[in-house]
Here is the input.
Amino acid sequence: MSVEEHEARTAAEVDQALEELVRATGAHIGAVYLLVPEDQVLRMVVVTGVSQNVARPWSRVALAAPVPVAEAARERRHVWVATHTELAHRFPRTALALPYHVALSVVPLTSGTTCWGAMLQLWPGTHAPELSRQEAQAIDEGRRRISSLLRLAAADGHPMPSTELRTVGPPPTRHEEPGAELTERFPEGTCALDLTGRITFLNRKAAELLGASRKDLLGARPWEVLPWLHDPIYENSYLAALFSRLPTSFIALRPTDSWLAFTLYPDATGISVRITPAEAPTEDHEPFLTPPTAAQARPGALFHLLHLSSALTEAVGVKDVAEAVTNQIMPVINVQGLAVLTADEGRLQVIGSRGFAQGVAEHFDGLPLSSEAASLRAIRTGIPMFYANTEELRRIYPHIDLYSDMAAFAYLPLFASGRTIGCCVLGYDQPHPFSPDERAGLTSLAGVIAQALERARLFDTENQIARGLQAALLPHDLPRIPGLEVAAHYLPATRGMDIGGDFYDLIRLDDTSAAAVIGDVQGHNVNAAALMGQVRTAVHAHASAGAPPDEVLARTNRLLIDLRSSLFTSCLYAHLDLRHNRARLAAAGHLPPVLCHADGHTEILDIPTGLLLGIEPEAEYQTVDVPLPPGAVLALYTDGLVEVPGTDLDMTIKELAAQLAEARPQPLDVLARTLVRHARRTRQSSRGSDDIALLLIKPEKRGD
Here is the structure.
């Protein structure tokens, strides 16, 4: 048996397994995706329930994308989403690209340690919240069956190719339906659409209402032959019925003043449409009113563009944008080379490049904008350029031999804030004719990339300033105080502006006493950092002047009131008496410190908590004295160390005390890193994000 015959047999067996699974579970759409490891993309190879044209916008999924198909393959687990509302919460990008009332299941196709891909099924959104036992069993059996087929094919050296998208399902519908004469007696128009959206049958009344002959309508898609249905929103109603398998309706204006109501009834073979005259809409009910004057992008293309664009909404800095473009967008638009270039200070800067030959990025990085190159021409003119092959490029720029590395190119200017800020270069390893729709889609995508890039550059600039301010305000080194071992650790928030208002300090008062302070200013921005510096300076000044803890907080509070800041601050101040091994503490809305004794047992200190600083001018603060014997460890911390969304704060503070007791024998700096590392793992798993400041204090035995 030849290689082609082996591949065809495997493909036929997979197709049959998918079709039988969909029939057993009652799903109306099913698809198999295969992993293409070298491209880090999942590619749909077979689909049932919809046509290739309908499925194509969802046929390529980047493995790194936060979407159900990729997550199931990436994490090798079953993903079940019961409603579109749940889809919007868990996978907002998919909900944007698939705005239909559906339930979906995705299971990974695996054998041993190998992941072959994923299998998708869709049901109407009226499906029960959970899969039934029979459905779950059928899905598991189908997963095992298809995985086994793929494993055996690979073991034989003939894995199923992932280059062609196939469809399986009911045979094409004839253009005349049995019993068609019955519909001629109806006082309303009726017609039928197949899974590709083409009209397979219509009665005379339907042709009369639509204003066209049956000859022109049969075999055509309504929105392609009737100018007044050209608006993509009408085609989207067909797609909504097709994907959800639920009735859908809309009204439309047929020139010049005839309103028609369309009701769509879908099933596994196509859609039946009921057409009746309708009343003109009122102000309270405005359907799709005005037909467009020019052709617009089809819904599949629009949703595809939205899906790709949403990958950039999660990008924060320039590096994030470059990674999103190369890791998530590049595989989906099926290009073999991609580079993002910016124009900075008269020179070209390559901020991201993938797929081009070695040395290409280095050649263009730093190139003067006055040089001759296609990318620089796109930047200077602001006009997108598409080359189906490289012959013209080599003719225009004969001195640049790098254009021979690819067979086709697209140069997309990045336009934002009223100017061209760079260029996105796409390279294809085969000649590539660019259709008008593809050119429009790529140009629109470039606009979204430009906006994300401009936003990211602004963020990076602000973040650099903020981090510089923070570095200047936090202590570079804590003072060395005889008889006292200290360790501090600071970890900024993992999302958003990489700076906050958490602060700490250690102040030497005299030979036998010191002060420790920790606090948290609201917010994660430059204002919070600036106020943090003022609070830290005020505490330092009042402590050095000999004020007791309660007075230090009271005076700092009055300073914040005078500054008229809208931000509040929590603070914990500890006066450390090293001669008598005691600590006097006062708190302003701050979390209680944890004391780990030399014998290993811990206690959460009960400190009277006054108002946050900056609220009440006459606020007063109480002090508490606690023993601080040699070998004990006093832990002062901010809420980022213990707060976990959805978890009781008292419980997490108790967990911190237990971790401190368990890890206490370590050196103090190692102990600090251990506690912060544990908190970081916890907040990543819970999607929490806040700054962490930790100050550990350990008195030593004194020689006097």
Remarks:
- The radius of gyration is 33 Å.
- The first helix runs from residue 3 to 25.
